[in-house]
Amino acid sequence: MQFQVPQFIETEDKIIGPLSLKQFFYLGAVAAVGFALFFIIVFWLWLIIMLFVGGLGLSMAFIKINGRPLSKILLSGMKFYWQPQTFVWQPENPQVTKSEEIMKLAKPGFSLESIIAGASLKNTWQKLQTGTKQGLINAQDFSQKIKERYQVFEKITGERQAARRVDYRY
Fold first, then answer.
1. Per the domain annotation, does 69 fall within a domain?
2. What is the distance between the alpha carbons of residues 170 and 167, in angstroms, rounded to a whole number?
3. Do the Cβ atoms of 24 and 16 come closer than 8 Å?
4. Helix or strand or coil: residue 118?
5. What pTM did the predictor assign?
């Protein structure tokens, strides 16, 4: 038993002559706006406005970029600029523990805990900005404040983790 497989499923049906329904509506809207404006405004202003409106209508009806209609491209562009964008990094394997090889590769004073606290990045940034010992002193003061707020503890499994200190004395 043979079956016919539909082909050309991405092309729109030509309903009104050589135009699809969507193309006909775009051109009809341009014609309606042009007809209404012809009786409302003076001829030279109507001509200038119709050049822009007609160009927009013709481009919406016939221009395709990479096989996508211009209307979809413009909608995608508006969504990109008006909707908030959130980029969240999630590690591929968050259960990976630190091995001795990784710890040997790490430079002294550059640990995972200091990255979490932000002290290492701040220290490096200040060294780059100032190039003086004052930047280093400020970074050490900052890292001391961070150490006062965070504490590194070791779990039963041997994994080290940074946690925020909470002082309930107040």
1. yes
2. 7
3. yes
4. coil
5. 0.47
**Which residue is listed with tokens 């341009």?**
30
Q: How far apart are CA 126 and CA 162, in angstroms?
A: 23
Q: Which two tokens stand for residue 127?
A: 């060294």
Residue 9, domain member (yes or no)? no
What's the distance, CA 86 to chain centroid?
Answer: 6
Q: Residue 168 pLDDT > 70, yes or no?
A: no
Domain range for residue 118?
100-164
Residues 18 and 77 in one domain: yes
- CA 127 to chain CA mean position, Å: 31
Place of tokens 């079956």: 3
User: How high is the pLDDT of residue 127?
Assistant: 64
Whether residue 106 sits in one domain with residue 77:
no
Q: Last residue of a domain, which of 82, 110, 128?
A: 82
Q: Identify any residues that bridge with 69 across adjacent strands, giving them in sequence order.
A: 64
Q: For 99-143, write each residue's pLDDT tens digit.
A: 665 555 555 555 555 555 565 556 666 666 655 555 555 656 666
Q: Return d(Cα 140, Cα 146) in angstroms, integer.
A: 10
Number of domains composing the chain = 2
